Amino acid sequence: MSFVRNAWYVAGWSRDFGDDLKPVTITGQNMVMFRASTGRVVALEDRCPHKLLPLSKGKRIGDTVQCGYHGMTFDCSGKCVRVPGQDNLPRSAYVDAFAVEERNGIVWVWMGEADKADPSKIFHMDEFDDPDWYAHHGGALHIKAHYLNVAENLVDPAHVSFVHPTTLGSAASEDVPVHVSTSGDVIAAWRWIRNAPPVGFFQKFGGFAGNVDRWHYYYLHMPSTAVIDFGSVDAGLNLPEDARDQGVRIFALHFVTPVTEDYTIDHWMHLRNTAQGDEEASAQMDAMFRIAFEEDKEVLEAIHEEEQRPQKRKPIRIAIDKAPNVYRKRIRDLIESEATEYLGEPERPTFVQLD
Questions:
Q1: How much is the pLDDT for 167?
Q2: What is the mean pLDDT of the chain?
Q3: Which CATH number describes the domain made up of 126-330?
Q4: What is the mean pLDDT of residues 48-58?
Q5: What residues are paired with 10 via a beta bridge?
Q6: Which residues, including other chains, have CB under 8 Å from residue 208's CB and lie 6 or more apart?
Q7: Rg, Å, the chain Cα set
Q8: Which of 105, 108, 200, 212 has the highest CB neighbour number within 10 Å of its CB?
Q9: Which of 294, 219, 225, 218 is nearest to 256 (CA)?
């Protein structure tokens, strides 16, 4: 499978996890998740080692999960603590437990090698902790498509003019050059549209009447977290690019979670520098975002369906594909690095390298 395993993925918002057993699948791995009495979210392998019934079909007893078939019971570490009808507990009677971190109302799960789970690698933005910014958790877009197609769509400003002509884009940006930077750890693509009518989103939310300068900055963090910095400002101000906070500025965050090869969940939220605490504004923005994201969903699912069909020729690549091409290569490199183990330079090699 084409998944990067050694990574933190979003399982959902904090509000999604309570006392009930919740089945969650990430990178093809089925888990059962719940909030323990300590308040910590737990993630266990969702498969009893006896007859393989998913533990999510069992029941919770305190901070343990009892299998619904024969009653084998597991604690929060995955250890079997009870086998009905016998006192001895087989050594192989356990389920895997996954590292979980909860921050800023977001629940992250480490899907790779347990000893490599480093919480400091979890995605973070300074705006989460800045009182001048307001965070609003949106929803979860379920897409029948491969996660790489979903993620690369989020580092592609060029599609906005055509897929979102009434919400996030317009014809005014069709031929505006896209700038791309792939030299750092984060892939970036951006462009400004100067002295143009505001797009539908900012007509409703920004309250702009005349022409604006607007921007789209797309940042893609490995393996599949995207940040879209977009906004507008009165064109008469001739705002410099590094002064975007003076306009109506929004960060749309997309945590792209691969479920299977054919199914992806995009957990989306936003940070904004205006209308702090105004839940009516949040609801209005959510409604506009949902329209735009459904437009993406329709396109991405149609592409995925066609990818499953026989192709007579290779797909073409054009200039605007620079960032997606680099992204795909980095994903391939990460997957390959996880598939092999480097033992270091040999101490007494039996071969001689001449080039």
A1: 60
A2: 90
A3: 3.90.380.10
A4: 97
A5: 108
A6: 198, 202, 232, 234
A7: 24
A8: 212
A9: 225
Q: Give whole-number Cα distances, 127 to 131, 184, 278, 286, 339, in Å.
A: 8, 21, 17, 19, 36
The C-alpha atoms of residue 231 and residue 250 are separated, in whole angstroms, by 6
Tell me if the pTM is above 0.85. yes
- The stretch 98-114 carries a mean pLDDT of 97
Dump pLDDT digits (tens) for 122-138.
999 999 999 999 999 99
Q: For the structural domain made of 8-116, what CATH number should be given?
A: 2.102.10.10
C-beta neighbour count of 112 within 10 angstroms = 18
Q: Which amino acid is at 195?
A: N
Contact indicator for 10, 108 with CB cutoff of 8 Å: yes
pLDDT digits (tens, 9 = 90+) for 312-324: 888 888 777 888 8
Phi, psi of 25 (to 5 degrees): -120, 130
Structural domain boundaries in the chain: 8-116, 126-330
**Is the bond into 223 cis (omega within 30 degrees of 0)?**
yes
Residue with tokens 């940040």: 227
Distance in angstroms (rounded) separating the CA atoms of residues 156 and 297: 15
What three-state secondary structure class fits 184? coil
